[in-house]
Amino acid sequence: MAYTRVYREGVLAERDFPVERVSDYLQDPSATVWVDFCEPTEADLAAISEELGLHALAVEDAVHEHQRPKLDRYETHAFLTAYSAHFDPESGEVTRSELAAFITPHALVTVRKDDGFDIEAVAERWDSSADLAKSGISFLLHGLLDYVVDGHFESVQALDEQIEALEDLVFDERPDQRELQRRSFRLRKSLTRLRRVVLPMREVVNALMRRDQHLVDDVMMPYFQDVYDHVLRASEWTESLRDLVATVRETQLNLQGNRLNLIMKKVTSWAAIIAVPTAVTGFYGQNVPYPGFQTMSGFWVSTVVIVLLSVALYASFKRRDWL
């Protein structure tokens, strides 16, 4: 079932009417119509496509998935593609939902590629700012983009918090290296997925605001400027997070290398200490006479030499912070 609405003179006149009645409402120049489809086929869009004169290439892009965020301009309408995003702190993954929209002077047709895009939340934004509904298509576009961009901003903020928590784990006394690697690569993957939908929105919103497009009126222009500001902040934030994730990974590898060097230093120092008694006992193990040969005094002399040299080496290594 498609969601439908019609506004007249900035007032919501009717909702949830059959799609077949769209042509009747469009005969009124003061009417603004919104129609929403979820997972339609080209056949499902045939009627509305013929009514609004939608370009065949735009209809094809609206049906097929994995389009890039963009704004295409055709003779009778504009075609918009965008993605909503949500970050799950439990799994550390970003879920995206694709949306396509046909923009005509008096109608907005949204096409959701799956039910993950919360179109009811968009409708609630329209209802909460009904005083702006006189702007028609500009009003509907703003509510739609404001929801999308706010979702991007919230996802970036949640990712930032997860990366900060990852930084704290890096400097634990005994960090779980396997868990650190798993979380860092998972967050890096999520950030990459998010950047692919956040960065192109700068061009999309900027193109919508161009005067020659005639899609945004003077009343709604400041509101679109606010959306554009959020887009820029989210884009710059993702760039800084990418550098931060790389820095966290580099720091983790450096700390691992430092810990390995420290372990090797300690092992080498203890090996040097153990080499002293090995050398002394090996020397005294020769089958030739030596001072104290076959006497208790010789045994005690060799023992004292071992202890003194081992203690001297330990003190020397400790003073140099090798142990």
Number of domains: 2
Taken in chain order, the helices and strands follow as EEHEHHEEEEHHHHHH
Poorly predicted spans: none
Structural class: alpha+beta
Summarize the biggest pleated sheet. Answer: 7 strands, mixed
**Approximate strand percentage:** 15-25%
> What's the CATH class label of the largest domain?
Alpha Beta
CATH arch. level architecture of the largest domain:
2-Layer Sandwich
CATH topology group of the largest domain: Beta Polymerase, domain 2
Full CATH superfamily name of the largest domain: CorA soluble domain-like
Tell me the overall shape.
rod-shaped
DSSP strand count: 7
Question: Mind telling me the C-alpha Rg?
Answer: 35 Å
Q: How far from one another are the termini?
A: 73 Å
| Helix content percent band | 55-70%
Number of helices: 9
Lateral strand order in the biggest sheet: 2-1-3-7-6-5-4
Q: What is the residue-mean pLDDT, rounded to a whole number? A: 87
